[in-house]
């Protein structure tokens, strides 16, 4: 295996042809931009068999397990990012629900819309560009729609729509925002109930997916060597990789059902 790796490195070095700019930069001791390094024509034809030989020289079961681990890591990272996005969206929607209530109270107190926006923007930075647009006589709903981009922006988009309705219909803006505030609070309460209902399903899916790891630890505790069994037998490694893939599919399926329930899809 060491010999094959050395041969592969040697062939890769021989096949690599630096660009003239790379040579000039190296001779002039300038910073080298790796993005400009090019490979000679036919390099892939040389490196592909070498890479295949290196993989074959390794333990095939180890390659399968490593691939399964890499896929699981990518899936876990993606799921973690989705969880952070959901949390950010929930925080933004709660913030918008509160700012609508405060803004409606400021308007009921008799403050002009631009002054009310400037006052509320001190507590809620998301309204700073909107307050600036209102102070310059700009389109407030358009500014709100611009701020609605990103996680949890649907609540700001609804605020923009309510503001637009008040402008076009001539209805009192404070009354429109009062009704919007009530609607937002009710929707937030329903969303929290749904999230609380689907949280056990998410947790159960993750628990079931991680149970095989505890099985490996249990086998090691009884004096066995399950890791060696997996790495020494290609069939066992394939079964483990298939099980890992199915576990990830199960977690993804539960997450998809839970996401649909939180969105209110039928």
From TrEMBL:
It comes from the Bacteria. The chain crosses the membrane at residues 50-76, 201-222, 234-254. InterPro entries: T2SS_GspF_dom (IPR018076). Keywords: Cell membrane, Membrane, Transmembrane, Transmembrane helix. One of its GO terms (cellular component) is plasma membrane. It holds the Pfam family T2SSF. The keyword Chloroplast does not apply. It is found in: Cell membrane. The keyword Nucleus does not apply. Residues 102-217 form the Type II secretion system protein GspF domain. Its main location: membrane. It is a multi-pass membrane protein. This is Type II secretion system protein GspF domain-containing protein.
């Amino acid at each position: 295996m060491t010999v094959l790796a050395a041969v592969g490195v040697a062939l890769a070095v021989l096949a690599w042809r630096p660009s003239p700019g790379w040579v000039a930069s190296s001779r002039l001791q300038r910073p080298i931009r790796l993005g400009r390094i090019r490979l000679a024509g036919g390099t892939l034809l040389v490196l592909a068999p070498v890479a295949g030989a290196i993989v074959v020289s390794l333990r095939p079961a180890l390659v399968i397990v490593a691939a399964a681990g890499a896929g699981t890591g990518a899936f876990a990272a993606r799921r973690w990012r989705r969880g952070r996005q959901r949390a950010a969206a929930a925080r933004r929607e709660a913030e918008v629900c509160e700012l609508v209530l405060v803004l409606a109270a400021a308007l009921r107190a008799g403050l002009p819309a631009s002054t009310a926006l400037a006052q509320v923007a001190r507590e809620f930075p998301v309204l700073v560009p909107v307050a600036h647009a209102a102070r310059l006589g700009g389109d407030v709903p358009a500014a709100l729609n611009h701020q609605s981009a990103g996680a949890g922006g649907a609540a700001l988009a609804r605020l923009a729509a309510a503001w637009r309705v008040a402008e076009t219909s001539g209805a009192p803006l404070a009354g429109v925002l009062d009704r919007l505030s009530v609607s937002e609070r009710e929707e937030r309460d329903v969303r929290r109930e749904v999230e609380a209902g689907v949280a056990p399903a998410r947790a159960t899916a993750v628990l079931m997916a991680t149970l095989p790891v505890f099985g490996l630890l249990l086998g090691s505790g009884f004096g066995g060597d399950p890791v060696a069994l997996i790495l020494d037998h290609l069939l066992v490694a394939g079964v483990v990789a298939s099980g890992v893939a199915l576990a990830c599919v199960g977690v993804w399926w539960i997450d998809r059902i839970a996401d649909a329930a939180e969105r209110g899809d039928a």
